[in-house]
């Protein structure tokens, strides 16, 4: 009988030991980190975390189900519970698409085991205390409104493998200390405020580094020995000169040929692409830039309205030319002299439906004859509202038979709201006519000599 009891007791002890073993998601979050999460929530105005439950038990308020690889909304806190005494530590914090404001919380440094940090819609400067997060392996802080120069914190993040700072609001240059990141495998930096800085050396390692450097103003070449570069450059065509002189151009950007009043707008329905040039008899356009993190098709470079438009000349706003980086139109073979330029806009992609999707912001700059005539233009604010038209007029002087109009995304606004691939400049129609004109009453404040 004793022989039977002993194995039975041994089996019970084995089960008890198994139950006591630390399993991921079954431990208790360290009390200091629980307190820190409460401070972070308060600093960000975040009210949807259920503080009555342990953050590391994968309760719904602390973890967003993974429905796709790059969700627009992600409220996930990931823990590692394999530490002794069943203690869990927070290793990943993702705050994305949650309408959060303010600055990056200083209490993040109270999560010493943090390896991944993702956040957006924040402002201010990065706190120096972030240098204490020495275990960081992944840092994604794109689509923010940070201020000041890009911080020189890289010497503290020697384990960093992925760094994403796109449309962050930071000023250049990139600190030279980035070369210390010997474990870096992916670097995404775009649209630094200002420019003219030399791209830093990333060290002598021959490792594969995926670089995404779209829309930067770096001087000099990308250092040799770096593989996997995805760096879309602007395409600048050289226009041919003809003996014929035109005195007007009307383009329905991204749309079909249309007649509005007595003006015939030519079709502009070429699908374009990441680096393309389209040419008609006396005008053409170049489009540059590739949308990040989506499988780009020709349809991504033309926006189509999905609602009923009630503004005047609605035919011009049904579709629009769209690009993630730059669109440049050339009216060529023009007779030299003064011209009236009218630019038609309507925001037909971002919606006004009181949802997360309505937080999309399209902000870009406008150049005429290589001169900046309108900075940080936001169609929705200028209209005001979506599906509403706004027109900007300029006086332009043509001296070499070519009028150049460029729309350039300067790294501000959102890059994934309401969906990926909707940011960048958008133009509905262009009208160019020769002659001396006076200011239209409805265009007050928008008339400029170029």
Please characterize this protein's 3D structure.
This protein is mainly beta and 450 residues long. The chain has helices spanning 2-20, 31-44, 379-382; strands spanning 28-29, 74-80, 87-96, 116-119, 123-124, 138-140, 145-146, 162-166, 186-190, 210-212, 229-230, 248-253, 258-260, 263-268, 275-279, 283-288, 302-304, 319-322, 326-331, 337-346, 363-368, 371-378, 389-398, 403-408, 426-427, 429-434. The strands form 5 sheets. Strands 1, 2, 3, 4, 6, 8, 9, 10 and 11 form a 9-stranded mixed sheet that branches. A 6-stranded mixed sheet has the order 13-14-12-26-20-23. It has a 6-stranded antiparallel sheet with strand order 15-16-19-24-21-22. The longest helix has 19 residues, at 2-20. The N and C termini lie far apart (103 Å). Residues 1-25, 227-243 and 441-447 have low confidence and may be disordered.
Oligomer: single chain
Mean pLDDT, rounded to whole units? 77
Order of helices and strands: HEHEEEEEEEEEEEEEEEEEEEEEHEEEE
Principal-axes geometry comes out as: elongated
CATH topology label of the largest domain:
Leucine-rich repeat, LRR (right-handed beta-alpha superhelix)
Structural class: mainly beta
Protein name: non-specific serine/threonine protein kinase
GO molecular function, one term: ATP binding
EC number: 2.7.11.1
Catalytic activity: L-threonyl-[protein] + ATP = O-phospho-L-threonyl-[protein] + ADP + H(+); L-seryl-[protein] + ATP = O-phospho-L-seryl-[protein] + ADP + H(+)
